[in-house]
Description:
By secondary structure, the chain is α+β, with helices and mostly antiparallel strands. It is built from 3 helices and 3 strands. It has one domain (19-90). Strand 2 (51-55) and strand 3 form a beta hairpin.
Amino acid sequence: MAKLFMKSGVCSLCNDGQHILMFDIxxxxxxxxxxxxxxxxxxxKHNLSEIYLFQxxxxxxxxxxxxxxxxxxxxxxxxxxxxxxxHRVIGYY
Length: 93
């Protein structure tokens, strides 16, 4: 049997049961200008507050601290067009 490990990290779930937008854009070859342009278009389309963009060693993370239901987050997430393909396939639970 494989060993079990505790993992920790951040989660989009807030105390009130709603979620903030958290995008994991693991596409290292996409340069920052394209990510910013896509996120600005996405922000305007959904009338969102500020989106915070962080560069990682594998790509980008983007967070918007506005709260939504999980279904709203999921549907907006699919419409971005930059999300990691694995996240689009496995969905959410």
